[in-house]
């Protein structure tokens, strides 16, 4: 499914009524004028005690069951949107509640309450348990687990007022407009979030954590001589306000504007099979066309082209692919997953050979496999499922310059746009937001209207050069109605040939 920028889950309603608080300020006409931020909640959340959580889990297993878990969450979120030099919307909200899951054989029951009140959590546990049958589970106590910390904020989000946030966004707007008079429109989307959660399960342990995340997207529209183009800058990470420190505002505005200006001179893209060099950071292709097929739930359903292929070659020997939630500060990172499994690095493809899949507790039990810390959920309103975190193709040893020089004619894909992917087959169509011709080993004219068409297995089998550099792309991944923050990364690499859809005709070698 497509990776998109931040998507809220505020609209879905629970069948169990509880408490949820939010406040919004909309359509404020001038930047920074008269803004006041709601008082930030304290650093702690009054979650139920381990004894209360143990009783809720016991209620969930009262009718039998193999496993139960309880996920409690309190999330503080701020959204600011700016267009045409004005604040178009501002939202501040607190999302709070808990969800209970029970697994018995192949059956799963799930219910949630939009409250942390023990009696409402207990009611949800009874609802989730309705699908189970069998004897009662013996009482148990919970012990807290410890784990390494990969996500830390040096400058906490809640210590920065809304006026400072708006001043930061205003700097972006000014920097973008100062690049060139051809810049006509600047749109800025900003989000920050602090998620505090506790997860406890019937194997007798619980874990708690607090995760910050910041997301920024700057879109610039430029026009000149009846030509129009768009540029974009995007950054996100599980960090505090240090992510946006220094000259980041000016850098963000300039990069988005300069990209739009470059694309004003774009010529129609060629068509046919061509070599394509993907710039470092273009890992979204591998996330979509390969990564989803390596999530174990699809493998169990035999809905993945990678099912039954562990130990077999699925790519050229240059390819090593891994998923790693321990990468400090990355958007897809965490310290402990939403099932209570400490973050880890999972090798998926090694030197072209498939070595394993991403697992959550349910799939690991079915496949008799080890847990890989890939149990994730959008919020307490959803059960955990197998999801990617930071999925990366490992660097090689060539320089990006040598890869370009070795390509007589082809396309340099600097930035991907939108696309469509069939998760089961890995068939895809990706648009290129910024791309260039490669002619006689040099990057030349910018091109427009280019699409890459193929499949994940084809691409893996045609990667013939991999650079020593590395870049990453932050996004939000959708699957089965849930959206979670992720990162996809790769070095500069070349696909020896892939179908390019364009408007100019021609071909390459």
Overview of the structural elements:
17% of the residues lie in helices and 39% in strands. It is of the alpha+beta class and 509 residues long. It has 2 domains: 3-263, 2-Layer Sandwich (PmbA/TldD fold); 268-501, no CATH class. The strands form 4 sheets. Strands 2, 3, 4, 5, 6, 7, 8 and 9 form an 8-stranded mixed beta sheet that branches. A 7-stranded mixed beta sheet has the order 1-23-24-17-12-13-14. A hairpin with a 2-residue loop joins strand 3 (67-83) and strand 4. The longest helix is centred in the middle third of the chain and has 18 residues, at 162-179. The chain is globular, with a radius of gyration of 24 Å. The two termini are 32 Å apart. The model is unreliable at 1-43 (pLDDT under 50).
Sum up the structure in keywords.
alpha+beta; 2 domains; globular; 509 residues; seven-stranded mixed sheet
Brief summary:
The protein has helices spanning 50-60, 118-128, 162-179, 248-263, 284-289, 296-300, 361-367, 400-405, 456-462; strands spanning 3-4, 21-26, 67-83, 86-104, 107-113, 143-144, 183-201, 205-224, 227-237, 267-268, 272-278, 321-324, 345-350, 353-354, 375-376, 385-386, 390-393, 409-421, 427-439, 442-448, 451-455, 463-466, 471-479, 482-490, 493-501.
Q: From the alpha-carbon coordinates, what is the Rg to the nearest angstrom?
A: 24 Å
The CATH topology of the largest domain turns out to be PmbA/TldD fold
Helix content: 10-25%
What general form does the structure show? globular
Please name the fourth-level CATH homologous superfamily of the largest domain: PmbA/TldD superfamily
Query: Strand count, sense and closure of the main sheet?
Result: 8 strands, mixed
Number of domains: 2
User: What does the average pLDDT come to?
Assistant: 90
Distance between the termini: 32 Å
> What class, by secondary structure content?
alpha+beta
Strand content: 35-45%
Instruction: Find the count of extended strands (DSSP E, 2+ residues).
Output: 25
Top-tier CATH class of the largest domain: Alpha Beta
Catalogue the unreliable spans.
1-43
């Amino acid at each position: 499914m497509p990776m998109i920028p931040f998507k809220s889950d505020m609209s879905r309603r629970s069948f169990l009524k509880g408490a949820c608080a939010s406040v919004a300020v909309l359509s404020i006409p001038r930047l920074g004028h008269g803004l006041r931020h709601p008082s930030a909640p304290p650093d702690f959340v009054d979650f139920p005690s381990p004894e209360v959580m143990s009783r809720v889990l016991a209620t969930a297993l009262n009718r039998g069951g193999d496993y139960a878990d309880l996920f409690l969450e309190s999330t503080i979120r701020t959204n600011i949107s700016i267009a045409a030099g004005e604040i178009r919307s501002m939202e501040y909200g607190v999302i709070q509640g808990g969800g209970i899951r029970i697994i018995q054989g192949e059956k799963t029951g799930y219910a949630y309450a939009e409250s942390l009140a023990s009696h409402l959590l207990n009611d949800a546990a009874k609802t989730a348990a309705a699908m189970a049958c069998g004897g009662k589970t013996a009482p148990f106590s919970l012990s807290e687990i410890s784990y390494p910390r990969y996500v830390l904020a040096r400058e906490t989000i809640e210590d920065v007022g809304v006026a400072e946030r708006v001043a930061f966004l205003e700097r972006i707007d000014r920097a973008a407009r100062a690049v060139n008079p051809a810049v006509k429109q600047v749109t800025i989307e900003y989000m920050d979030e602090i998620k505090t959660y506790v997860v406890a399960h019937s194997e007798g342990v619980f874990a708690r954590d607090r995760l910050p995340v910041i997301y920024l997207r700057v879109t610039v529209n430029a026009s000149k001589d009846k030509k129009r183009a768009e540029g974009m800058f995007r950054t996100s990470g599980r960090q505090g306000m240090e992510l946006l420190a220094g000259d980041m505002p000016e850098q963000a505005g300039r990069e988005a504007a300069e990209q739009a200006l470059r694309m004003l001179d774009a010529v129609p893209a060629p068509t046919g099979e061509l070599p394509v060099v993907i710039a470092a950071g273009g890992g979204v292709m591998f996330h979509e066309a390969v990564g989803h097929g390596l999530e174990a739930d699809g493998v169990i359903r035999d809905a993945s082209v990678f099912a039954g292929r562990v130990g077999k070659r699925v790519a050229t020997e240059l390819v090593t692919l891994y998923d790693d939630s321990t990468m400090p500060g990355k958007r897809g990172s965490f310290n402990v997953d939403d099932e209570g499994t400490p973050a880890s690095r999972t090798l998926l493809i090694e030197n072209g050979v498939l070595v394993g899949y991403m697992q959550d507790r349910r799939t690991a039990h079915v496949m008799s496999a080890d847990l890989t810390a890939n149990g994730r959920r959008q919020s307490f309103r959803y059960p955990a499922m197998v999801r990617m975190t930071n999925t990366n193709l490992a660097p090689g040893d060539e320089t990006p310059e040598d890869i370009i020089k070795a390509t007589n004619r082809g396309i340099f894909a600097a930035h991907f746009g939108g696309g469509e992917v069939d998760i089961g087959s890995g068939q895809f169509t990706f648009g290129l937001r910024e791309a260039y011709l490669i002619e006689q080993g040099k990057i030349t004219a910018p091109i427009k209207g280019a699409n890459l068409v193929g499949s994940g297995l084809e691409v893996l089998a045609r990667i013939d050069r991999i650079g020593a550099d590395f870049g990453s792309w932050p996004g939000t991944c959708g699957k089965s109605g849930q959206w979670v923050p992720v990162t996809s990364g790769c070095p500069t690499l070349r696909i020896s040939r892939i179908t390019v859809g364009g408007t100019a005709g021609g071909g390459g070698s």
